[in-house]
Amino acid sequence: MEAANLIAFNLTLLAAMASPGPAMLLAIRATLTGGRAHGIATGFGLGTMAAAWTGLALLGLDALFALFPWAYMAMKLAGALYLMWIAYGMWRDARRPIAAAPGPLPRHRAFITGLSVNLANPKSVIFAASVLVVIFPAGLGAAEKTLIVANHLVIEWIAYTLFALALSTGPARDGYLRLKPLLDRLAAALLGALGVRLLLDR
């Protein structure tokens, strides 16, 4: 493995993180509703599970899913239902003012929320496996696999931290409050769509 492989992997990660998917929208919402620490904790949860999926892909979990399709289907079903439950709550509370809602979750619960959202998408391990196969050479040793996972974790944590710091300003929060019903329902729609896609994909 060469430095160029890690650079290519990191660029792929950053491009994936920058896309307006459910994880990024959850991080945005967490920061703007709960503040900087809340957003960082949610991002740490998202990043930890994303790195864990990469580690599992390196260990061959994608091959295990191929060998035992029922295990993959069970994880997909549980994940889809969880994502749709989160989407329902976001949609239901979209018009509820922030002041009327309960205070932000404790940091450990924000972390668990982020962790759970990425855990609910077992297709992430398939995505991770495909990226790893394209970017890295075959026959990686244990130390190289550990480096890849640690690198993934650090990149995710740094990116979500910088993102939360940028969004935790007064103007960003004021803008969110003005657009809260629209943004919350957009996030809910994307999370719900991901849940439905998990249910329907074979």
Order of helices and strands: HHHHHHHHH
* C-alpha-based Rg, rounded: 17 Å
| Overall mean pLDDT | 78
Runs in which pLDDT lies below 50 for 5 or more consecutive residues are: none
| Strand runs, count | 0
Which band does the percent of strand residues land in?
A: under 5%
Give your account of this protein's structure:
The chain has nine helices and no strands. It is mainly alpha-helical. The chain has one domain (3-13, 21-200). Helix 2 packs antiparallel against helix 9 and helix 5 packs antiparallel against helix 9. The longest helix is centred in the C-terminal third of the chain and has 31 residues, at 170-200. The radius of gyration is 17 Å and the shape is globular. The model has no long low-confidence stretch (mean pLDDT 78).
Label this structure with key terms:
202 residues, mainly alpha, globular
